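S.,

Sequence below, as promised.
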Amino acid sequence: MWYNSCMEKKNNKLQAGRENHTKPLRLLKIEQAIQNLSYPSVERLQEELEVSRRTILRDIDELKNYYNAPIEYDRTRKGYYYSDKTYFVKNMLLSESEIFAVAGILPLMERYNNTPLKDTITKVYETISLMLPNQVEVHSSFMNDVEFISNPLPIIDEEIFNQVFKATKLHKIIRFDYRSISATSYKKHELHPYKIFNQKDDWYILGYSPEREKFTTFSLARMKNIELENDFTPDPGYRKKIHIDPDFGIWNNEKASQKIELLFDKSVNTYILERTWHKKQKCRQKRDGSVYLSFESNQLQEVLFWVLKFGSSVQVLNPPELVDMYRDEIRKMSKIAFDEG
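The prediction came back faster than expected:
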């Protein structure tokens, strides 16, 4: 009897271990079946996964309750479907050490506090923490010694954020009111959204504007009163019509890239040398301690804004167009300063 009891406990333990190992993959397969198949039934899922009806029903309940999956049952078609077609589960099959690492990194995502991602990231952190074994406890006390100072960011309306992502995924035309950076009022726009960018902690949508007859970029923070309309057919060759430089700017500019050449004073040489300002940059220190930096970009306005922050510690060498823009901006600032004086 004692031997049978020990063997039973051992078998239960082994079975539980196998279940913990196979269940994440099984949940993922069920999620994919509901996403890709037409109203899969319990019997279809049983056949696909080779498990009991009871296991399938239990897994579906777990997807609904634990992962907030919007799973519904259609009695006419006798199968399951998602009431929200944009929903999907990204189940992470990670080792315990990888889960622990991700759980430790997630608190660093405070830079997204100005977006609805804040709540999502919090839920992900809690979910990953629950995936850890009982004997492992995640402590975030080390974060008390670290403080992140981010750039001042505008708050993005939750409806704007969610609707832009939804429209981009489903290829829906969007209409919205937009206030450009120098405007004093909002103007109605229509856009076929193609790609979302996060540049320097702010969010942008790039798409085709029928009014402008070209691809253009809009800031999510400057949008309001968004509406989703009819579907559009994406242009398969759209990438050839987008001319951006993710290292410096995501503003669509049909002008060809130009070679940017800058010379930084030795007072900031270490600061310039220790960073990668552009993926294709050339950077070298000269004998007098100054630093030469060059790269190619079509984002001259963004490069100008960046160069200006270095004040008298930088010289713009090329291209001539950027040199003229730099001089004009300095003249304007000098005029303001002297006029006020």
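Residues 68 and 226 are 26 Å apart (CA to CA).

Coffee later?
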